[in-house]
Please model this.
Amino acid sequence: MKMTTKPVTVPPTDRTLSRRSFFMKLGILFNAFAAMVVAVPVVRFLLSSVARGQAKGYLSWVRLGDVTNFPEGQTRMATFRNPFVMPTDGKTVDTACWVRRVSGNEFQVFAINCAHLGCPVRWFPQSGLFMCPCHGGAYYRDGSRASGPPERGLFEYPYKIENGVLTINAGQLPTPGDPVASLSSEKPPCA
Amino acid sequence: MRVIKKIGEWFDHRLQLAAPIREAAGHPVPRNTASWFYVFGSAALTVFILQLVTGILLALIYVPSAGEAWSSLQALNHQVALGWFIRAMHGWGSNFMVAIVLIHMVQVFLFGAYKFPRELTWIIGVFLLLMTLGMAFSGQVLRFDQDAYWGLGIGASIASRVPILGPFIVKLMLGGPIIAGATLSRFFALHVFVIPGLLIAFVSLHVLMVLKLGINEWPMPGRIVKRATYEAEYHDLTRNDGEPFVPYAIWKDMFFAAFIILAVAACAYYLGPFGPTGQPDPTIIQTAPKPDYFFLWLYALLSLLPPSLETPFLLIGPVLVIVGLLLLPFLSGEGEKSWKRRPIAVITVLLIAITLGTFTRMAQFTPWSPHMSAWSGDPVPDRYIHGTTALERQGALVFQVKQCRNCHSLGNTGGQRGPALDSVAVRLTQDQLIRQVIQGGGNMPAYGNNLSPAETTALVAFLETLHPATQSPARDAARDMVLSESKPKSAAQP
Model:
């Protein structure tokens, strides 16, 4: 390599070497091109779960059951199958949520996940509180924060009632930084 | 024998490894490093190799599928001969590895071994610690039970708090919109291919540097490290007061390695494998998820931090700690090595150890969590309702039915989330009790919406009886005066 810097006293040798080093550089370039060609599908494969999640790709309307299953003034657990399923998911696609029928067609559907760090909250009708077993978060019956580490109330799913069936917009794990469930919080005009 | 020698020579003629191995084995080390304090690095390597072996054995049976992982662990525990033992070895090996890596790190820190010229050895060691913790967490995920499932939820919730990128990171981490099959598969890939591969590469570099730069000499108070002179001094030390590593120092490493392997095996045999706990079925919510031992301190911290501090702490804290550890050899690359002359170093280690130890201990009791089954099991003890009025008894009933003891203990039974109520009447006046029950505050939910006025009156009447016989309940003297002026004295306290 050092020889290329020599003065042009020996033209043929110099030309051969620079030709070699040119091919080496071309080789590097060729490999960089090959790497790019492979990298595009690799990166798209790696990010597929992110890309699909854009524009609410994971969310859809899921049926929770007949409105009559939920007595007025009570809060009950309901389960649904996550709309986005892969063949190896097993039981993990079964999701739980809390349904509070305030009155008539007015509902509140809360995610099971604590708004602190996602543990499953439990409803205690006697004390009228949702309590979290992990870090001690507590919420009132309307989902608002009562005490403990959560910074906000429970995540709420948008719902609508179609032909007497309670339906919620779900499909993604709600987290404090991405409270999907309550993103479209506009109340449906069904009450 | 001659045949064996010939075969050996045939191989070495082609491999050319005998000379470098002989050189590494015979390289002189300072005599005083042949110490029991210097065995933790090799012990960590030993446990790592043990983990590789037991991990490969587990992979013969384990199925990394969300639908089948749990049952394949059950098969390992109950169906495959000694599957439980290999699982237990791997689980206990994990605990031992984290513990030994931490001890090794503390020893290296206190002996000043991170100083010139071993800065890079320390930095790679920091990455090795992070990878070890990564293995511990991802390993807990592969034990795909309830703890693993909700632990992933906690991980996702923490990751989601990263500004702007949070939601992307969560979907990348979970491999989809929820914790499911893709999540387990990617943690399997991390735990079995990615992190172990990196660990092998980094451990090789780490050990290579120990061989090339020489083991840290026993630190003598007053012997100061200077960049200009250290290497020559170390060279003199090994030449004048050195012995070949094999066999002079290595026998202690070998003894300790064997001891550690036997200790892991003994823990595995007598204490058995970890879990799996309940099935990873998100509709089964009667669970109180807890992390593995070495993350318990974090569990306690997440419960005790004030809500407003939590996100900054979670996102900035780890960065500061890692950057601090990486910068350490540059901030104090020279100077005193001996812990006897480095009081701040010793205090730092003690402070961190005591803090982590306290949090870990607290996480074993979880005083911040309501006792979720308290109300049905624990009626108000008889002695608290002896000689009470009908109203006070009604209050005792409200106290029990409204599950106050999920959070408050009475007669040493009940939750520790709120204060014990055995002598609450001494601390709070009637008005303060009413206000506390109705409005909550100080981390107590408000019960105004959940109690009728009659229930509140009864409950407070009961709470007012909760004081030691020798102490009278708290009274608001001003209120007594106002009441006595306006109407005849009511319910005078004894």
Summary: The longest strand of chain B covers residues 28-30. Chain B is about 60% helix and 0% strand. The radius of gyration of chain B is 31 Å.
